[in-house]
Amino acid sequence: MQQKKGEISSIRTVKEREAQKKQSEAEREATQAYSKAKKDADGKHAEEKAKEEKKGGFLGWVKDKLEAVVEVVKKAANFIFEGLGKAVKFIFEKAKQAVLGIIELGHKLITTLIKGLGTLLKRLVCQNMQQN
After folding, report:
1. pLDDT at residue number 53
2. Quick one: which of 37, 43, 84, 130 has the fewest CB in 10 Å?
3. Which segments carry the region annotation Disordered (predicted)?
4. CB atoms < 10 A from the CB of 26, how many?
């Protein structure tokens, strides 16, 4: 029985480590995806700003600046939300994998426990039969 408890504990520890590793990996990858999306949006904003500075005429400049600001804000917002959507989807996928790992751990723990109890029951029956 002690051996089965040790086996259960060992399996649980391994699965907990795997789940923690998957969660850490998902968080790291989501952070990288967000950073990349933000960097790309900032780069596009800088490009738009450089284009706007090249245009001439005060009224044209003001109009172009306003249009450019609106366009950059739209593009940046869309780009960031797309990146965040991908990051959130990725995080949910990794969390789902972690939960499946925990469910698998529970399944193995219960299976091992049932096997251990079956072995214990067999021994009790054998001892009882030997005494009779």
Report:
1. 64
2. 130
3. 1-53
4. 20
